[in-house]
């Protein structure tokens, strides 16, 4: 949430604390991988938002290494596409970011939101409007919360607020 509020320095500190807590060994291997990878995506998001390409590139390198070890992992592949787009954004290249973000799964709502932003930065207003409309029509549901997916609710509420 700190990152969403534009408080990148604090978000980075919280991310480091979360990494320390997650390394205590109380999680299974799969849970540790999921947590570590989510942290890497957040690191890339923070790097892109604060124009720190090195942070985003480091996160991408780590995710790429994981993908080489598990090439059939579709979730991980989506994270790599997202991180590649974030690296492009951190270098000020929204057009390259768009190409990477388009490869993310439709259900990666953060990636879709950043795709909209990159399309707007690249002057692709019609494409951004179509991506936004498609995302808002998704009305995503999940089996865990027996209702709307929390990630979808957050992203869609942010998009609706910006009309």
Structural key phrases:
2 strands, mainly alpha, two-stranded antiparallel sheet
Layout of secondary structure:
Blueprint: H1 8-22, H2 29-49, H3 53-69, H4 74-90, H5 94-101, H6 109-121, H7 125-137, E1 141-142, E2 147-148, H8 150-162
Antiparallel strand pairs: 1-2
Helix pairs in contact: 1-2, 2-3, 2-4, 3-4, 4-5, 5-6, 6-7
- What structural class do the secondary elements suggest? mainly alpha
Q: Give the biggest sheet.
A: 2 strands, antiparallel
**Rg (CA only):** 16 Å
Q: Which range best describes the helical content: under 10%, 10-25%, 25-40%, 40-55%, 55-70% or over 70%?
A: over 70%
Total domains: 1
On the 0 to 100 scale, the average pLDDT is: 85
Task: Give a verbal description of the structure.
With 163 residues, the chain is mainly α. The chain has a single domain (8-162), classed as Tetratricopeptide repeat domain (Serine Threonine Protein Phosphatase 5, Tetratricopeptide repeat), CATH 1.25.40.10. The protein contains eight helices and two strands; from the N terminus they run H-H-H-H-H-H-H-E-E-H. Helix 1 (8-22) runs antiparallel to helix 2 and helix 5 (94-101) runs antiparallel to helix 6 (109-121). The two termini are 21 Å apart. The mean pLDDT is 85.
Question: What is shown here, in short?
Answer:
The chain contains 8 helices and 2 strands; from the N terminus they run αααααααββα. The protein has helices at residues 8-22, 29-49, 53-69, 74-90, 94-101, 109-121, 125-137, 150-162, and strands spanning 141-142, 147-148.
């Amino acid at each position: 949430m700190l990152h969403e509020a534009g408080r990148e320095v604090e978000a980075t500190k919280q991310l480091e604390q979360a990494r320390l807590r997650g390394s205590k060994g109380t999680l299974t291997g799969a849970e540790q991988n999921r947590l570590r990878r989510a942290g890497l995506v957040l690191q890339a998001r923070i790097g892109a938002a604060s124009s720190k390409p090195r942070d985003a590139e480091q996160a991408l390198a780590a995710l790429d290494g994981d993908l080489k070890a598990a090439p059939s992992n579709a979730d991980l592949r989506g994270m790599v596409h997202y991180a590649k787009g974030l690296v492009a954004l951190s270098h000020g290249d929204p057009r390259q970011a768009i190409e990477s973000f388009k490869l993310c799964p439709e259900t990666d709502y953060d990636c879709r939101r950043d795709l909209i932003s990159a399309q707007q930065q690249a002057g692709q207003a019609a494409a951004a409007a179509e991506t936004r409309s498609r995302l808002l029509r998704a009305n995503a549901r999940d089996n865990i919360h027996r209702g709307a997916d929390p990630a979808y609710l957050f992203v869609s509420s942010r998009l609706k607020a910006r009309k």
